[in-house]
Batch of 3 targets.
Target 1
Amino acid sequence: MLSITHTKNLTGAIVSGDYWDIDELNHAIYAVIGEEGKYYDLEGSRARILKVCHDFRQASQGERNIEFVRNGLHKDSMKEHDLVAPEKNVYFTVEILWPELIFAAIALNDFIKLYQKKHSFPLLDAHVTTIRKFQSAIGASLSETLDEEEFQNFMKLLNNQETNVHKYAIQFVDVLNLNYIKMTKEQREESLGKYALKLAIQDNEYVAFRNQVIKSANVTKSTIHDLALTAEYPEDIEW
């Protein structure tokens, strides 16, 4: 079963599951977000989600971390069925920065809304159900750190699909990621709820940032999602 827990320093989340858990989530996300160019106003958000999917894929291929999780099988069961088998299953894990993961959860709402319009029974769609479980797991993990008001406000926005990442200035996620990395554990604990709401609501800080990105895009004749942020991520992150 896919699980999402905090890293030791609250820098990010540990996404953990067996091969089939992670593979199912990746397939669901690819099905829902569609091919490149399908939703032009969501191209930036799509690219951002695919960045997370790349981390998932590397994890499922054993290129990140591996842990062993008890599978419920015990010696008495094996004796009863004359069976020799391992008592633990291989789980693959990967760390993802919290702002990055939260934005992916928010952005998937927009793709789900568009995807469901083309399906006769959207509430029973397997891909949507898989993604909803993923979003729910993120919410469950955030509930351990966010205060009650922040948590309720964020989950209401996510649950009611009151989010909008059309023509989103995705460089803002990088800004939040980099600021979040620089914080202490205590600062992250205090700020995580504010970051979650900032990503969901698009406050004045975001609007000012987006306007600046648009100005730069106009100068270079680029699209808003093609501009790269000059700041670089640290090679080693203390998770």
Note: The chain has nine helices and four strands.
Target 2
Amino acid sequence: MTSVLRRFVQRPAPPPRDERCELCAERIPPEHGHVVETDSRRLLCTCTACRLLFSNPGAGGGRYRAVPDRYRYQASSPIGPAHWDAAQIPVSTAFFFYNSSIGRTVGFYPSPAGATECLLGDETCAELAAADPLFGELTPDVEAVLVTRDGAGFASYLVPIDACYELAGRIRMHWKGLDGGDEVRREIDAFFASLRESAKRASDRTGV
């Protein structure tokens, strides 16, 4: 059995299959944009033309919305432990976005099972939004405020919604054992470092 498993592990990876736009079926590169189908919350891989088409919120009757490429970083978020406890979030990282199909802010946290929904009451949502100004800048459905405990306090990021699901995917893929293991911690550190770099580049471009 060991020799069979070894041959399986050492088998060459299959050639990458062509990725195609999920709206027009054009070929797309590995690095591509996304569009949110607002009713189902599905993320669709798209070509540049389709993504630009749905950058207008009114396009397609609002059924599809392009995920923007905007990053902001706030090293010291006004969100504190009391807000976290009120939201009943059992881990140190969560993300929040406004879901226009139900008309309220929702929250999720990454876990070994994927993105897990937080059960946020209206009062808790209002307190979070009032505490951190990044909530006031959110584009509904396609951007999120990603909050993580950073030492004694919290840091927050305004990010494209697909970045949050990327983080959840990394955690799910690399989690080992009860506490996740060193590999998943390295993945998480690398992910947040890339967000800070993206926010810095955006700040350099805009001068903000």
Note: The chain is about 35% helix and 25% strand.
Target 3
Amino acid sequence: MEIKKAVIPVAGWGTRSLPATKNVPKEMLPIFRKPIVQYIVEEGIGAGISDVVFVTNQNKTIIEDHFDRNFLLEQLLERAGKTGMLDEVRRVADMVNVIAVRQKEQLGLGHAVLTAREVCKNEPFAVMLGDDLMFGRNTGIGELIKAAQITGKAVVGVIEVPEEKVSKYGVIKGEKIEGGMYRVTKLVEKPPVAEAPSNLAIIGRYVLLPEIFEILEKQKAGVGGEIQLTDALQGLADQDKLVAVKLAGQRFDAGDWVEYLTANIYFALHDEELRDELVKRLQELLSCSG
């Protein structure tokens, strides 16, 4: 099973991050020295993805532009002798083949995936959501692609969450197969704590089979009046065509302000030039706030 396409839905309004996202797509908010969406694309590239399908809207063309050439900027950097920066902006422009499709109405994640049907056609494909950032060696979408190649099934990424937070996620019920892999029997979107089948929460990483489109096409609106991908995945689970992988590594929810700011600190602490001064300033701030 070869997986070369990743669908990245970016048509949402980013209301959790307002007012910062009033005129700037949440996917373009910076974490350390890169916009959020670049980390997602680089994760995909590291797993062998060559084509990125942005499910977008008319206000998000800046995302596509980020992965295109900017000749005026390149000329400016070249004249200034800033060859390192010049190489970096060219690297970003050349890193992946970008395909954009319009989601004309925001009717849910399931609808966003369905919008990419004509591009993905009869191939298995990855889905990567920009709210979830995964960091660490051999983690993220690469783990799911490996599981899909081993099992021949669709795969969802899951993490363990505290019981009181299960109502914020889609949650699975599954039978452990081996290692961190589960055969999924049931999925519930944002269940009340008392009704959650487990604390294994689905995060924004999927590898899907093309038959998901037939299921989504017939899918009725679910939680929030939207076409939920979680509901459609139940159709695959009913056919024993869905497994879950408990993801390793460090995960940040970029739509949560505490997580977003922590992600910035995480990367800055890994920068040798900034680490010592940053630690010093954080200690000063903590002592002042105390």
Note: The chain has a mean pLDDT of 89.
